[in-house]
Amino acid sequence: MSAQLSNVNGDNKSTIRVSEAAVLGANFSQDGQLIATASEDGNAKVWNTRGQLIETLAPHQDEVNTISFSPDNRYIATASNDKTARLWNRKTKTSITLNHTDRVTDIEFSPNGQVVVTASADGKARLWNLEGQQLNILEERSNISKSSALLGA
Prior knowledge:
0% of the residues lie in helices and 53% in strands. It is an all-beta fold. Strand 5 and strand 6 (53-57) form a beta hairpin.
């Protein structure tokens, strides 16, 4: 499958061939120079805007639902159906696993980049610091599908 880059007029600028699996999420880095993709085959990859692969993150055990850059571009966060989210340190090439009891449907960084929020099919949103310590659990009566609602978006 592929991801396409278009300008605001809808003109196709570039196509990135990501994998044979469906691309479930894509996100720009804060400076607009990189694109991260999340795929159905469990892979997460980073590309430049010319479509060149920069790095492949170690795969999840199931599909990756969404991917996000931290505000300073130092971290990438992934959310997966394997009941984990991961925080990837781009400098050290290491990751921290954030364990959940059900599939993780979304992950977003706080505006200052010091906290991430995950949304899970278990009906809970969790707040984590960058060291992987769970800070709080927010529980809804009905399942949470997107963390952006918790961030006021």
